[in-house]
Write a structure and sequence with these properties.
By secondary structure, the protein is of the alpha/beta class. The chain has two domains: 264 residues, FAD/NAD(P)-binding domain; 150 residues, Beta Barrel (Elongation Factor Tu (Ef-tu), domain 3). Helices cover 32% and strands 16% of the residues. It contains 13 helices and 16 strands. The strands form four sheets. It has a six-stranded antiparallel beta sheet. A five-stranded parallel beta sheet has the order 6-2-1-7-16, covered by helices on one side. A three-stranded antiparallel beta sheet has the order 3-5-4. Helix 1 packs parallel to helix 11, helix 2 runs parallel beside helix 11 and helix 2 runs parallel beside helix 13. The longest helix has 19 residues. The protein is globular and about 65 Å long. The protein starts with a strand and ends in a 5-residue tail after the last helix. The structure holds flavin-adenine dinucleotide (FAD). The site of flavin-adenine dinucleotide has 38 residues, from helix 1, strand 2, helix 5, strand 8 and strand 15. Flavin-adenine dinucleotide binds next to helix 1, strand 2, helix 5, strand 8 and strand 15.
Length: 432
């Protein structure tokens, strides 16, 4: 049988490989690491989560909750592994990132229909193939893609620091989820107003990494560096990543003025990431400023925050409705490089590309995912229905058509969108 080549063993590439292999196709998955790496990846494992270890909420009144339902429905490997590698994180699904990547790698390599090859793919492969080389694709293939698609676009993305658990001053910290939800999954570092003001002043004065050519480019809103949020005004932090709502400091019995939340990185509870603190501060500035947070005075940084270029193609112009390159029949694109934004969206895009490739190989028309579903919304997004000029986006309920009947209450309305989507997904014909 003809081999299907998948370039990139990240989130989209692994999902696509698994989907095709499970349906009997022979897959060759080409991954450049460890021969070459990106500025954000640190391991040789497949499906490495480069920044947060959170796959967001499980709740069906969120877009992430619905997307997870649809991923599971279509047999997502990464959802199966995430469920197995999860760490406590309240209503969110967070994973031990090393365990997660190791288990995905193990399952992919053990699959009889998948061969993993370590190589840097320099050119666009012959059909049938899926390009899932990510937003930090190797320069060689990025240049080829650029040439074929008439120019890639990019925005800037940042990563938050990780702290050793035993370096946190537990005399100042307290475990709690907001509004008592999620037990002791988050470690909270409360701040009084004077402490916050001191931190804020230092943050505003901090050095950032030396200006790169891309410095003046767009920063994706949900990955905005902490110092960029702060620059919008002191209150922005208090209503954003440092909001104290739903938390009572057991040391004082009061709601703190501001809070920094730490989320578990691993099952051993040896590391925490600072929630919402992606940053482009220089390393000396990170040490100085973040150690002003009460409880982090002696913080041992296991990973510093960084900032990276994030490349995507103008999907509405260069891909058809099935994610196939208009300029190269039988070669599909998947993942963040197509302009979907986020871990879950990249996984979904990998499965969608694999489904479309199956349809193509079987001589069928492109699959139209129902517009009321998350997959259908992502399909419409990459067709350019939601933004001009084209910009990357997460899935959100603003992408789905309105409900037939009015539902009162934001949360109830979102649940209704999810329920409607679930009915559509469950009644759609089985693919593959
Ligand atoms: C710095 C940064 C931080 C991010 N943080 C988050 C976050 O916290 N939460 C979130 O939801 N999303 C985040 N994202 C967005 C997105 O979800 C991730 O980038 C996600 O990993 C995208 O999945 P992917 O499969 O498209 O790409 P990737 O997971 O990056 O996979 C691409 C793979 O292709 C390989 N590769 C590249 N070029 C070649 C080549 N020429 N030959 C062979 N192999 C190649 C790479 O090594 C990599 O393994 C972040 C993105 C960036 C850039």
């Amino acid at each position: 049988m003809q081999k299907i080549l998948i370039i990139g063993g990240g989130l989209a590439g692994c999902e696509a490989a698994w989907y095709l292999a499970e349906r009997g196709y022979s897959v060759q998955l080409v991954e450049m690491r460890p021969l070459a790496s990106s500025p954000a990846h640190v391991s040789a494992q497949l499906a490495e989560l480069v920044c947060s270890n959170s796959l967001k909420s499980e709740s069906l009144d969120t877009g992430a909750g619905l997307l997870k339902f649809e991923l599971r429905h279509y047999g997502s490997l990464l959802m199966q592994v995430a469920d197995m590698a999860k760490v406590p994180a309240g209503a969110a699904l967070a994973v031990d990132r090393e365990l997660f990547a190791a288990e995905v790698t193990r399952r992919i390599k053990a699959h009889p229909n998948i061969t993993v090859e370590n190589a840097v793919q320099q050119t666009i492969p012959a059909a049938p193939a899926i390009l899932a080389c990510g937003p930090l694709a190797h320069d060689s293939i990025a240049a080829e893609i650029l040439q074929l698609t008439g120019g890639a676009l990019h925005f800037v993305d940042a990563i938050s620091p990780v702290i050793a658990a035993d370096s946190v001053d537990m005399g100042k910290a307290f475990f709690a989820g907001r509004y008592g939800k999620g037990g002791d999954d988050y470690l909270n570092l409360p701040m009084e107003e004077a402490e916050f003001d001191c931190f804020y002043a230092a943050l505003m004065a901090a050095d950032t990494v030396a200006a790169h050519a891309f410095e003046d480019e767009k920063v994706f809103e949900s990955c905005m560096p902490i110092e960029a949020i702060a620059a919008r005004g002191r209150e922005t932090l208090l209503y954003g990543p440092m909001r104290p709502v739903g938390l009572t400091n057991p040391h004082t019995g009061r709601r703190p003025f501001a809070v920094v939340q730490l989320r578990l990185e691993n099952r051993e509870r040896t590391a925490y990431n600072i929630v919402g603190f992606q940053t482009k501060m220089s390393i000396p500035a990170q040490k100085l400023v973040l150690r002003l947070i009460p409880g982090l005075e002696d913080a041992d940084f296991l990973r510093f925050g960084t900032i990276h270029r994030n490349t995507y193609v103008d999907a509405p112009a260069c891909l058809d409705a099935s994610q196939m390159l208009i300029a190269r029949e039988g070669v599909f694109m998947a993942g963040q490089i197509t302009g979907v934004e986020g871990y879950l969206e990249s996984m979904a895009s990998g499965i969608m590309a694999a489904m479309q490739l199956c349809a193509h190989l079987n001589g069928c028309d492109a699959i139209s995912f129902h517009p009321e579903t998350a997959f259908g919304s992502l399909q419409r997004h990459i067709a350019g229905e939601f933004s001009t000029p084209y910009t990357p986006s997460n899935f959100h309920f603003g992408m789905v058509p309105p409900l037939a009947e009015r539902v009162r209450g934001k949360s109830k309305r979102k649940e209704a969108y999810s329920q409607r989507a679930i009915e559509r997904v469950e009644s759609s014909p089985k693919q593959g």
